[in-house]
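Incident log entry.

Two folding requests arrived from the same account within the same minute. Monitoring flagged them as a possible duplicate submission, but the sequences differ. Recording both here for audit purposes.

Request one:
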Amino acid sequence: MEAKDIILKAIQHRTSENPISNVELAQLCRSYGFNLSTERVREEIRLMRKDGILILSQASAGGGYYMSRSMDDYLKFRNTNLLPRVIDMQDTMRLMDYSAKREYKMDAQARLF
């Protein structure tokens, strides 16, 4: 059993009403002999999400991680957590590309792709 298996098992029965925090997950992993920091727990969850596992989260007080139970759960998470980050990153890249073109007086677009 790996740390990610422990994390996933702990999250599988959690809902938005009963999420589990990264601190609790790190402590649980430690009880199984894995010395994971809260940052490493977040990284493991990020990797599981990249594998398509529908782990959702809420950042409010008492927040934490839980499993998606419906398309509505997923879409709410997608539209309030993922989409704003993607848009922010696109905006940042666009503005930095513009600044690089001005700063280096070249058509950076062709070189950026």
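Request two (distinct sequence, not a duplicate):
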Amino acid sequence: MDHDRARTAGRIAAGVVVMWVLIAGALTGIGKLIMITHNGNGNLLGDHAFPHWFAAHRTPALSHWSLIASNLGATQDILIVGAATCVVFLAVSRHWRPVIFVAVVMFGELGAFLTIAAVVKRPRPDVPHLDTNLPTSAFPSGHMAATTCLYAGLAILVIGHARGWWRYLFLIPAIVMPVMIALARMYRGEHHPTDILASLLFAALWLTATTMLIKPTADGPYRGGRLPHREDADRSRRAAPGSLAKASAADRASTSASEQRRTG
């Protein structure tokens, strides 16, 4: 049994690695194609128009709020929400599968983002930037990819494990957060629209691949809109022998009564 489980885990891990290479390679190819066609700061899909429009309509208030929104997609905030998600699901479900899913999704996203950005080396939009000393290039948007992966992944876990209408409320942050991050990053002059679209494409492909391979919702859904505790399962197992004994006694009594009627 343990040997079969190890083989299954190995196949899943190999599949995850292969899909990561394919997806990261595809996004790298798209980025290099943009650079080869001299669209690094061209107007492909509004890459020139949108950043310049945002830069022309900046106000102190909008700049302040854009900073707050942008920081919600920064590494520190993403790490906090991701860690909290892992702790809550492990404490409530007593299963490691959701934790493994979140870890693979987020570390895979980080590794792909750093790799693609280092290879493509796309310049930032040619407008004044509100952020300084950015360590990576423009393509793709790390803030956008991380935010989409995290909140969409959270929605997948909750909808797959819980029951009740309230679980679909988690679709709201899965939609609102990426939109807010996208607008904030373009407003601040850090990304082109195609950087944002590339991040969305990566997140969609990566989440699909990891969900199909890891199957993070294989342990749900459960009745009552909650995840069962291990004690509930233990209680059910302890009650089972007693129920079987009662059923067996009832069968014997029924058989004895039938024999008495026949002999009488």
